[in-house]
Write a structure and sequence with these properties.
The chain has 361 residues and is of the alpha/beta class. The protein has helices at 12-23, 32-45, 56-66, 84-91, 110-116, 136-146, 200-206, 233-243, 246-263, 293-302, 328-336, 348-360; strands at residues 50-53, 74-77, 95-98, 121-127, 149-153, 161-162, 165-166, 173-177, 190-194, 270-272, 279-280, 286-290, 337-340. Helix 1 (12-23) packs antiparallel against helix 8 (233-243) and helix 2 (32-45) packs parallel to helix 8.
């Protein structure tokens, strides 16, 4: 089967000497490799104030906490995402408030977001689902007008841009994931970006038990709760090597996504996810919209091509029962949703086959 997702690793000749060096350096926990990775990632993608974390989920928990989210607060979010986006809100003791999604993209509908804002709203979590940027200009305006934080969940969207700016820099906070099957992996890992430089120290304390690294343990004073959310030198070293090769990986995702956009245009019963004109997707997953998604999935699978909806809408989980509401946009999107292979492993022959199967089907 041609898979929907696949682990991307840099060439062995580049990776293994770097890993061997750090593994036998005697310094494998958080240290200089982590700090070099933060700086290199920030420079490579145009992202300021980058802090490496143990996961994207840890970075989101940090962003929510830095935004002041706590018990009794509300956070507006999307049900069309991986579950950690929304369980992170529960970590803070806050209530998840669902906004509906735009059925053309699966991303948050700004009008629905604005309608859900109350005096208890503390933040909006905007997921760039499948690598397609949300309608950021509208969400930024809404967040600013109501004095709430805008958090960009960029876990699917490494390399995507909006109005010429890097994804993760338009919100007050941004987070990236380097989990196994993302565009770029450090096996596990994540990264937090934040606009307020005065929160950098607090963020560093949050990721390390409420303490600053490098301060003698006999001299520290813990003044707030922190977690074991730091990245280590081994995964950071993998990240540093990945950065030398990531542009080609990202470009192949984009090339394949644009190929599908063009070649599947006009096929009866088939459409594809769409962003606003300012957005440049990075196509972590290619999102088809099908009049009969089950039939298209069956046809593709029979031809040796993996295809699925991949995620379950989070509002269907019992843990979010208190957030139940009508979401007609989500229902429309999910009924038509189907992801097909789009990544760096999809060859020219593969993508021709995928298009041919869909056209004939």
């Amino acid at each position: 089967m041609i898979p929907i997702v696949k682990v991307a690793m840099p060439p062995k000749a580049a990776l293994m000497p770097a890993l061997e060096e750090v593994l036998y350096s005697g310094m494998i926990a958080e240290g200089e490799a982590v700090y070099r990775f933060e700086a290199a990632f920030g420079q490579h993608f145009g992202v300021p104030n980058a802090l490496a974390m143990s996961s994207g989920t840890a970075a989101l928990h940090a962003a929510l906490t830095l935004a002041g989210v706590g018990p009794g607060d509300e956070v507006i979010s999307t049900p069309m995402t991986a579950e950690p986006t929304n369980t992170s809100i529960l970590y803070c003791g806050a209530k998840v408030v669902w906004a509906d999604v735009d059925p053309r993209s699966g991303n948050l509908d700004p009008a629905s977001v604005e309608a859900r804002i109350t005096p208890r709203t503390r933040a909006i979590v905007a997921v760039h689902y499948a690598g397609y940027p949300v309608r950021l200009a509208e969400l930024r305006r809404i967040a600013s007008a109501h004095g709430v934080a805008l958090i960009e969940d960029c876990a699917h969207a490494l390399g995507a841009r909006y109005d010429g700016a890097a994804i993760g820099t338009i919100g007050d906070y941004g987070l990236y994931s380097f989990q196994a099957i993302k565009h770029m992996t450090t096996v596990d890992g994540g990264l937090l970006t934040l606009k307020r430089t005065d929160q950098i120290v607090a963020a560093k304390k949050f990721r390390w038990f409420g303490m600053l690294k490098g301060v003698p343990r006999t001299e520290v004073d813990i003044d707030g709760v922190g977690y074991k959310y730091n990245m280590n030198n081994v995964t950071a070293t993998l990240g540093l090597v990945q950065l030398d090769h990531i542009d080609a990986v990202l470009q192949r995702h984009v090339d394949n996504g644009r190929f599908y956009d063009e070649r599947l245009s006009g096929v009866a019963g088939i459409d594809h996810a769409r962003c606003d004109a300012a957005a440049a997707p990075s196509y972590w997953l290619y999102t088809l919209l099908c009049d009969d998604s089950a039939a298209v999935e069956k046809t593709l699978n029979a031809a040796g091509i993996s295809a699925s909806k991949l995620h379950r809408p989070n509002n269907l989980h019992s843990v979010f029962k208190a957030s139940d509401c009508e979401l007609p946009g989500l229902a429309a999107f999910y009924s038509r949703l189907l992801h097909i292979p789009c990544g760096w492993w999809v060859s020219d022959d593969d993508r021709e086959l995928i298009v041919d199967v869909i056209r004939r089907g």
